[in-house]
Amino acid sequence: MKAGLLAVAAAMAAGVSAKSHGHGHGHDHRRHAHEIFHAERGLANETCVAGCTTIYSTIYGEATLYNAPPPPPTSTPAPTSTYAPATVPTPYVTTCPTTGVYTFPATTLTITEEVTVCGAASTTCTPGTNTAGGVTTVVETSTTVVCPYATTTVSGGVTTSTILTTTYVCPSAGTYTIAPVTTVVSKETIWVYPTVASYPVGTYTQPEVIETVTETDYVIFCPYTSSAAPAPPAPTYKASPPPPPASSSPPSTGGYTGGLGTSGKKWAVTYSPFTSAGCKDAATVASEIQQIAAAGYSSVRVYASVCSGLETVGAACETYGLKIIAGVFIDNTGIGGGSGAAEDVSALIAWAKWSLVELIVIGNEAIFGGFVSGSELAGFISSTKASLKAAGYTGPCTTAEPLDILQANTGALCAVLDLVGANIHPFFNGGILPANAGPFVAEQLGLVDALCEGKTGINLETGWPSQGNPNGVSVPSPANQLTALVSISETCGGKSVVLSFFDDLWKAPGSCGCETSFGIQEIAGKF
User: Fold this and answer.
1) Is residue 365 among the annotated active site residues?
2) Compositionally biased, Pro residues: which spans (predicted)?
3) What angle do CA 102, 108, 112 make, to 5 degrees?
4) Confidence bin at 215 (pLDDT 50/70/90)
């Protein structure tokens, strides 16, 4: 689980960012090899150390044309933008200044070695001065931070983006945003600003897009898809009100109008219906769900359809009055036909006990794990929502990613999410004391709330380990786990999913030696 910081491609702050927290699943060994889905957290050079340590990565890459688009579209009338051949598969974002039919030709790019360049993110600006981007870091003491950031320069009327490195002295404990960019607007508008983006080796395709524009200043978003997985349909989004024509709108679940969670101190906890030896039987699942209900939780989050979990967990939840946060898990099998994710969608539709389902989470850190791009995930969420709706599901859908991944992919994801799901782990920030776990989660959740206009945020995974190695000032122990869980419960427990009720002994211990020890069974009655 990555710390919820806007760290772009670098892991910043006094501690270590954490790697994928994907919950492995599946009936066969291909998807049941749990070590694949709980790989070492963090960067390649991650270490779990005591004290205050600043971890950072240097980003390399030549400056490229900002939002370098595919060949110019043919249109009636033609847009006034300046076009240049694309060199990396950054999504093409353009504003059509007048009405007409715009055709964006298909474009294919092949990358022979991994490249890191400036990408793009977007946000809604209100009249006046607006600030976005940069690198946000939390420090516990005076710290010198060295970090890469994306910025733009203008020369001869041409805007270019580049990655620079800055050294910043944080004079005291606090939260700092380093090297943000600003813009001044006279009316509400969509602002596209640079971010750091990395692209692995592969072939990328931006399919042909034909759009009939019926109003001025219409924003078109054309993402590339990778050949590493079957390409979902490339959606186009209207990035500012009024809403886009029906032909370009992603499908909606149609019935979601409010927030999730409770106004109290508890809401949901994660649950895995398997062990290192195999699947739990129905009687064991029923007994454990009963314990969760007795501890005051009203919902359980399952990550996939593993071990007939929808059937066994669903039956137990129905017996003890709990709801389910169901999952579609995206792993290294991708999102095409025959993938684990496709199996989960089919299993959900076949099960179809929608009255028990509080939320469906499509992908758990799939972008962060490198299994899909933001645009690929958006396309898969869109098509999955359409399939679920056709099967009778009218509730909300979202995905779960660390905060910085969400911040870097709002342009692709916001249109297809009914609410914004984040995994916020104070322990893996490395600079958070147990007593400050709740305020940290609440602060990060506030940032999630602001990511997609009109859509609330939810914390889909959080907790503190009872055993393991120290991560900066974040130290695992039973006492610290209780202190942290009390803090989270008091500040935002009703909006957070706790990881987990039972220790997950099937996981690899991870570099911090703590992955198996997030279970709260022993302390659940104390907060």
Assistant:
1) yes
2) 233-248
3) 150
4) confident
Q: Which of 365, 376, 401, 515 is catalytic?
A: 365
pLDDT digits (tens, 9 = 90+) for 341-387: 999 999 999 999 999 999 999 999 999 999 999 999 999 999 999 99
Beta strands of 4-77 (E only): which ranges? Answer: 64-65, 74-76
With 0-12 / 13-18 / 19 or more C-beta atoms within 10 angstroms meaning exposed / middle / buried, residue 257 is exposed
pLDDT band at 258 (very low <50, low <70, confident <90, very high): low
**CATH architecture for residues 263-526:** Alpha-Beta Barrel (3.20)
Q: How far apart are CA 380 and CA 226, in angstroms?
A: 13
Within the chain, how many helices (H) and strands (E) appear? Answer: 10, 27
Q: Do the bridges between strand 92-96 and strand 218-222 make them parallel or antiparallel, or are there none, so unpaired?
A: antiparallel
461 carries an active-site annotation: yes
Active-site residue (options: 211, 288, 358, 461):
461
- Nearest CA to 191 among 250, 133, 104? 133
Threshold 0.90, pTM exceeds = no
Give the pLDDT of residue 77: 43
Cα separations (Å) of 507 from 145, 242, 388, 514? 33, 47, 31, 10
CATH 3.20.20.80 domain range(s) in the chain:
263-526
- Tokens representing 18 are 């954490």
